[in-house]
Amino acid sequence: MRLAVACDHAGFVLKDDLVRRLRRRRHTVIDLGTRSAAVPTDYPDAARDAASALLAGRADRGILICGSAVGVSVAANKFPSIRAAVCHDVYSAHQGVEHDDMNVLCLGARIVGPELAWELVEAFLGAAFSGEARHVRRLRKIREIEVTWMGNGLFRREATRGRRGTRRPRRSS
Question: Global pTM?
Answer without folding.
Answer: 0.87
